[in-house]
Amino acid sequence: MTICEATSYRIAELCKQKNLSGYCVSYKAGMPASTYKSILNGKSRNPGIVNINKIADGLGVTIREFYDSELFDNLDPDD
Question: pTM for this structure?
Answer without folding.
Answer: 0.89
